[in-house]
Write a structure and sequence with these properties.
The structure is a single chain. By secondary structure, this protein is mainly α. The protein contains eight helices and two strands, in the order H-H-E-E-H-H-H-H-H-H. The chain has a two-stranded antiparallel sheet. Helix 2 (16-28) packs across helix 3 (72-85) and helix 3 (72-85) packs parallel to helix 8 (119-137).
């Protein structure tokens, strides 16, 4: 998975449609999520499209997630969120301001509110999982 900094660097040079294409490309690059993991329990609430996020292996206290969406651009937004937290230590993610890390992408102004309304819920889910792991590591 590309780093958030690498994605931001490319994103800043693009405009409108090319930014959409980049998001779609990021979504295609997500690690595949097996269909049996796409359940009501892994569904992120509040998204206009279906979005599933599933935490897997916390090797050495680092977070790793599988995720998917049934909408291409939404899947790209999911990939953007994951690029901020994927394979980082749980304590770091629990303390991180993920929304601020995504601010340079100006998603609220680049995309319709339908596409971004579930982002805070996805961030909350990731941070809650990180906080649980970090608390268990103490």
């Amino acid at each position: 998975m590309r780093s958030l900094d690498d994605i931001r660097e490319e994103y800043e040079f693009l405009d409108g449609d090319d930014r959409y294409r980049l998001l779609i490309e990021l979504g295609r690059e997500l690690e595949p999520m097996p269909d049996p993991l796409k359940t009501d329990a892994t569904l992120v609430r509040g998204c206009s499209a279906s979005v599933w996020v599933y935490p897997v292996g916390e090797d050495g206290g680092k977070l790793h997630f599988l995720a998917d969406s049934n909408a291409a651009i939404t899947k790209g937004i999911v990939a953007l969120v994951l690029s901020a937290v994927q394979d980082r230590p749980a304590q770091e993610v629990a303390a991180m301001d993920v929304a601020a890390a995504l601010d340079p992408f100006d998603l609220k102004n680049q995309l319709s509110s339908n596409r971004t309304q579930g982002v805070p819920n996805m961030i909350a889910l990731v941070k809650q999982h990180a906080a649980r792991l970090a608390a268990g590591a103490d």
